[in-house]
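Let's practice the habit of predicting before peeking. Look at the sequence and jot down your guess about where helices and strands might fall. Then scroll down.
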Amino acid sequence: QVQLVESGGGLVQAGGSLSLSCAASGHNFQDYAMGWFRQAPGRERDFVAAVNRLNNTYYAESVKGRFTISRDFAKNTVYLQMNNLKPDDTATYYCVADRATATIIRGLADIDYWGKGTLVTVSS
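Done guessing? Here is the structure:
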């Protein structure tokens, strides 16, 4: 059974940092792109960052320069280092995986796998 399990969410003050992890199991994801989405209360789910099988990275404009995505192919794990957090970053963060990087970046509905999410709350 394929699972993406996020961890590392929590409460942090504005300007602080958090690091999220997503452990993938049940499948070899080395040929997959992996990434992160987020959804704030009352808002749509938005693309945050992605990393493909060649380790190329992609970011939403709103997080460029503050967030860094990385992956450990041996551990089937993807990370999201979030620095200089803002109250607008408050959301549930979801890990995703798909064979096509573009599917993740475009936020298409048919992304192959989703985690259940981890909550990040940034206080002002």
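How did you do? The two ends are 40 Å apart (CA to CA).
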